[in-house]
Amino acid sequence: MHHVTLIPGDGTGPEITEATRRCLEATGVKFDWDVQECGIEVIEKLGKVPESVLASVRKNQVALKGPITTPIGKGFRSVNVYLRQELGLYACLRPCKTYKGVRSFFSGVNVDLVIVRENTEDLYAGVEFQAGLPATAELIDFINSKATGRKISTGKATTGVSIKPMSYEGTRNIANFAFDYAVKAGRKSVTSVCKANIMKFTDGLWYDETRAVAAAYGAKFEQPELKVAPDAELAGKTTDASQVAYMERLIDNMCMQLVQKPEQYDVILLSNLYGDILSDLCAGLVGGLGVAPGANIGPSSAIFEATHGSAPKYKGQNKVNPTALILSGKLMLEHLGEKAAAEKLEAAVAAVIAEGKDVTYDMKPHRTDPTAVGTAQMADAIIAKMQSM
Ligand code: NAD
Q1: Among 276, 358, 362, 380, the one annotated catalytic
Q2: List 195, 319, 330, 344, catalytic entry
Q3: How far apart are CA 104 and CA 121, in angstroms?
Q4: Distance from residue 389's CA to the centre of ligand 1 (Å)
Q5: pLDDT average, residue stretch 347-358
Q6: Whose CA is nearest to atom 40 of ligand 1?
Q7: Ligand 1 atom nearest residue 306's Cα
Q8: Is 311's pLDDT higher than 90?
């Protein structure tokens, strides 16, 4: 029996969460669900995320979560970002895999990528200075007075500044996570991606550290010219990643490579902002947000959720595709050590998609196709498929 926190979220969240719960139970694995309401209505009423939500995830260490809406311009920060930061979920895992029957521009290309994104640092740390505020002018004066060779020459009252903090520790943690994952999942390569030619002290640090971690794991350097910094601390990892290749690519080049030859890449290791952007690009390669699962993982807990948002315009219509959250549930089964159940669930999802009959509107050749089924009925078809296996 696995004790799992279940956060239905809001918008279309409750519908896809219910569909996923039923599919997970149909694998035969036993769950004790602790349902925690944390949708936008609850948060607006309370003025904050209920304490019980964090307490439940801390206790159970695993949560399945529907999307939660972020109100625009009401002073709330994203609840999703808040949960990741409060729980120290530093690693975001987003597999992007081609399933036969999913329509995309890349149908026929076998895409099987895994994005590993750092979740807590970088421009998303939220350290921002608004144009026109005294603190911003003070910061600009401070920067201009330092002999860095660079000055902010635009107006002090008309310039906003966002800070990009990146640490050796944060980079090491996510790089360790990527190599541990690559070894465990039998992956061929880890590609470290950034823009070190422009941002030498943040993205340069990123390459220094991911390279040092790759060397500590004994990974094969695809580019022999890459040198580990002489003062790098090699952690002496016990995991043997000598079968995993280590590569580096600049983010702009990586975007082009991924649309031209995605099959050449495997695990892609990125900092927060680049990871966010590339996740959507890779989801697009395999058919869009409807099939893009995700996990946010920390040292003591993990939240499994789809990449997409709450799609509020479809709320209550039993219309949207539950696949992304069901595949997030498959990642959760793997995390819980239920490998056979995870394989069975993925095989059933793949079979239902390949048949193309009991699928939601977005998976039909035309979005107005009258044969499209609802969220709950697609889950029924997946459950029936598992029962027939
Ligand atoms: P969205 O992903 O909710 O929806 C964008 C469009 O994608 C939808 O209109 C729909 O056409 C399509 N879509 C999304 N999910 C689908 C599904 N399962 N099946 C079929 N079609 C689907 O993005 P948005 O409109 O930018 O965001 C809505 C809200 O969700 C915002 O408040 C945003 O902040 C929030 N959000 C939450 C999370 C999260 O909870 N982790 C993630 C992203 C966005």
Answers
A1: 276
A2: 195
A3: 33
A4: 33
A5: 97
A6: 67
A7: 41
A8: yes
Mean pLDDT of 41-47: 88
Give the C-alpha separation, 109 to 125, whole Å.
36
pLDDT at 260 over 90: yes
The reported pLDDT for the residue numbered 339 is 95
Catalytic status, residue 82:
no
- Our answer on whether the CB atom of 290 is closer than 6 Å to any ligand 1 atom is yes
* Average pLDDT, integer, range 148-167: 91
252 flagged as catalytic:
yes
Structural domains of the chain in order of their starting residue, each with its CATH number? 1-92+293-389 (3.40.718.10), 112-122+166-285 (3.40.718.10), 128-162 (no CATH)
Inter-residue contact 311 to 13 (CB < 8 Å): no
In this model, does residue 238 exceed pLDDT 90? Answer: no
Task: Report the distance separating Cα 65 and Cα 9, nearest Å.
Answer: 7
Distance CA 5, CA 2 (A): 10
Please state the rounded mean pLDDT for residues 239-266.
95
The Cα 83–Cα 79 span in angstroms is 6
What ligand 1 atom has the least distance to the C-alpha of 362? 20
